[in-house]
Every structure is written in structure tokens, then in C-alpha cells.
Amino acid sequence: MSARPRTSPPLLASLPAVDELLKSNAGARWLAQYPRTLVLKAIRDVLASRRAKILEGTATDLAIDGLTAAVSLSLEQLSTFSLRPVVNATGIVVHTNLGRAILSDAMLANVVTVGRGYSTLEYDLSKGRRGKRHAHVKGLLREITGAEDAVIVNNNAAAVLLCLNTLARGRKVVVSRGELVEIGGSFRIPDVMAAGGVRLHEVGTTNKTHLHDYANAIDSETGLLLKVHQSNYRLIGFSAEVHIRDLVELGRSLEIPVMFDLGSGCLIDLRPYGITHEPTVQEIVKTGVDIVTFSGDKLLGGPQGGIIAGKRCYIEQIQKNPLARAVRVDKLTLAAFESAFMEYRDPARAVATIPVLSMLLAPLEDIRRRARRLAGAIRRGMPGEAIDVIQDTSMAGGGSLPGVELPTAAVRVRASQISAAELEERIRKGSPAVIARIRDAALILDARTIRDYEVPAVAAAVVAACRPA
Ligand SMILES: *Cc1c(COP(=O)(O)O)cnc(C)c1O
Description:
By secondary structure, this protein is α/β, with parallel strands linked by helices. The protein has 20 helices and 15 strands. Helix 4 packs across helix 5 (64-78), helix 6 (105-115) packs antiparallel against helix 15 (331-344) and helix 7 runs parallel beside helix 15 (331-344). It is globular and about 85 Å long. The protein starts with 8 loop residues before the first helix and ends with a helix. The relative contact order is 0.13.
């Protein structure tokens, strides 16, 4: 009845039993290396796929050696981590898909120190009794940001949600229409407002919002004035937004709290490094804003986290919200943050030791030197091919510094034997995986985000990918 080719009993019968493979030499090797359940799964998967191929009439490799090799490969794949390191050759420093900020050795060392043993997470050594989880970073955050108080939660989306819910649950939140933004994926200001149980009151127009728009909107049901930083786009041309300073003044005169979702949360003035001005957290705090929220793993360069800084009375309310427990940070995150904030006490030091900052602010000459090293190593492996160091631009990424183009150096590879698309795919699927761009039928490896220690591996990956199979 089936249109499929007829089954071939002799071929099917030639397939070994699971037990036979388990008892073979290879089986003994697998069992010594992998859990029994995994070995059984791999054997059954391989046999099932062989059986299906035989029934389809497409089976080619029926030798037992082929089966053994397939099981070995399957076991290797099943026990490879899914979350694993990649080389970022895109030049995008805060690459959300590639894990945003990479952490410094000092941050990671502190994560290991705290994680491998018991810790003071919620224990006060001086009093010998229960302490507070948030105490470990409060002092440093106050010191660095200038805010009265601060707390860290799971991420900035959680920070915004928690603040809205605490300060304006059941009430209206006034926000400019030009700031009803989407920050990649599922974070949209109107949706977060709904989830936080507040009512959105949009004012102004897409391109222009004035102070009187906010003033006219405020009534007895208004619970909060919200400003959202245009962190991943810019309004240019005929446009106007209200400065946070003026919004703070308005809020104060009417006794309505004012909150600023700053997004990328830069703690260092980038102007001396030739990057257009991104408002720093310290500057925003100085305006007297009641609450400012920002991400830990964007320009700050730390682990994932959402930092809430501002007036003590509000931070205390926020910490008492039952939602705060649902979005609290763990000890490993706190360990990384405490280490990062120690670095920020000295901005010059932070710029040198926080990887996001050092990559973002790297002198072009340093990037070019790395690009030349990489190009040289690739050329040695495939002489005669077109390998050049070119001038290019990279982006900060992660919804930080939109429109800022950072001059960079990249290696351009034009292989004679394979297409750029094929080369890109091969190095992406290799080990280590290298993520690169294609432009004008050439592979572009931006040296800004390639670490020095990764240079030999990237060169080897490119050379191997270009070798005829
Ligand atoms: C990135 C960003 C967020 C979301 O922060 P996460 O840390 O990714 O949760 C919210 N608001 C603004 C303005 C942002 O730029």
C-alpha cells in the first residue's frame, strides 16, 4: 500500500542489536567515558536512523565501522556544551546575541572565590547574625553614582517593571510618545507598563514633546513621570525632547516622582576619548531625579543586572515590593559587580581593566597591530591569497551609543577556492566558532573585539576553512 520502496529484510537483519554494540570494544570505551544512559541513547538514535534509511532505500553505509563512528560522533555532540565561547570578529562590543559584556579576570576570579565556598551573602560577620544581600554593593554604588541609595535586580527590564509597579501601581504614568521604545526582542515600554500594572498616559508627538505637554497631562491620578533614554536610536531633524532637569523640576513642584530609564548606563565620561557625549549616570543623578535605572552588562561592562539608583525613600519602597524577591540577583552576580565597582572607583583604571571599555576606547593603532598580526598568521597558512588589513568602522552595539562609528582595523579575506558565504559558515561552525561579517563578497574580521590570545586560533580556523576538503 505504501509508495515507499519495499523493505529489505536482509539489510535490516544485518543491523546489530543494541547489546552487541554495547559489548564491543567501542562499547567498552564509550561506557568508560560517558554515562550509560547517554551511550544507550546514542546507540538507539544511530540504529533508528539507519533503520529508517534502509526502509527508505537510501542506506549506503552499512558497515559496522560506520555505525561505531556515528555513535562516537553522536556521543561527542551530545556531551558538548550548548552554551560555549565564540570568537567575536564582528567588532560589535556589546553584542547582545554573543553575551553582551565580557567580564574581566578580576570579576571572574571573585565569582569563583565566592561561588566555591559559603559566603557572607546574607550574613553580617560583625554582628554574627543575618545580614542583607544588597548591602555588599550599596556603599560602592552610592560612592560611584552619587545617589542616596541603590539596589541591583535581575536586569534593567526587571528594574523598570519593579519601579513602575512600586511607584505607580494602578495610577497613570506620563511618558513622551517619542520615547515609547522597543529595546530588541520583547521589551516594549507600553507592554512593560501594562505588566507593571500602571496606566500609560502618552504625551506629545512622535518627533516633539514639550514641558507643557507633561504639565497639561498631570492630574490627580498621575503617579509618575517617566523618561526613557533613546539608547538605541536618535531623533534627528525637527524634533524636541524635554531635558530630565526640567522634568525633575516639574515633578518636584507637583510632588510627583520622576524616573529615568537610562538603558546603557555609562559611568565614565566618554568625551575625553573622542566619543560623542552619552549622559553618565552621575550626571543624571545630579539633576535630582528620584529614580534612575540602567543595565549592568551594556556600557558598564559587568554581569547581567539592572541597577536602580535614587532617593532612599523610593529605594526602600522598591525593596519591600514582593516582586523584588522575584527579580533579585544571585551571589555570583553580586560578586562580579562588587569587583567591577571597585575598579570604577578610579575611572582611569576602569577604562584599562573593564573589557567593554578597553575595547570601546582602544587606540586605533593597537587594533591595527592586532589586525596585522592576524593577517600575517593567515597569510603564512595560505600564501598567495588576498588577505588585507583594511580601515573599517565598528559599533558599540547593545542599544548603546547609536550612530557612533568607531574607526577600526579589520582583516579582509578573499579566498580563491571558496565563496565568502561558505567561508563564513565554515568558521562559524568550527571550533572555536568565529562570528564574522561578509561585505562585498569578502570575509571581514574586525580586530577590535578579537582578544589577543584568540589571534592564532582565528588564523588557524580561516586557513583550515579555506583548505580544499
Ligand atoms: C537595554 C535597555 C533596557 C533593557 O535592559 P536589559 O538589561 O536588557 O533588561 C531597557 N531600557 C532601555 C532604555 C535600554 O536601553
